[in-house]
Design brief:
The chain is mainly beta. The chain contains no helices and 17 strands. The termini are far apart.
């Protein structure tokens, strides 16, 4: 997905025939598209938007005004100065996450951590948050959100 997938008319932005309500053509850009081409992070003069094509109908959610500090970490996570976002699932803010120390654990895309928690992402069940896991002895169990330490 790139800029050519969008239509601009009178400050409004359309994806195919669908008006992206609230999104302005002013400062519009596509910051990120996942490998499947159905999920994107958009930017306009107001801020950052999460975009997802569901059965060819766009879902849209405003994430943050913080365009200066916003960055996409990978297909699943993004952050700004105050929050970490689960862009894999509706762009929700991960509660009590710490964007300064948040990192994806390199051995697997399913796990991330910050100074407070361990996060395990399961494509079916969503995000699991563990508060007392030992990061140094973490052993993921298969391709699931289950761990042992």
């Amino acid at each position: 997905m790139n800029l050519t997938d969008f239509i601009f008319k009178d400050q409004m932005v359309f994806h195919e025939d669908f008006l992206l309500k609230g999104v302005s053509s002013e400062g519009f850009d596509v910051l990120f598209t996942d490998n499947s081409g159905i999920k994107a992070i958009l930017k306009d003069a107001k801020g950052i938007w999460w975009f997802y094509l569901f059965r060819n109908k766009p879902k849209l959610k405003f994430l943050t005004k913080d365009t200066t500090h916003f960055s996409v970490i990978n297909d699943d996570y993004a952050k700004d100065q105050k929050s970490v976002y689960l862009i894999a699932k509706d762009g929700v803010v991960i509660p009590n996450s710490d964007p300064d120390t948040f990192q994806v654990i390199e051995e697997t895309p399913y796990y991330a951590k910050d100074r407070n928690f361990l996060y395990a992402l399961d494509s079916v069940s969503g995000l699991f948050i563990y508060g007392h896991a030992d990061f140094d002895t973490l052993v993921p169990i298969s391709r699931s959100a289950y761990i042992t330490d």
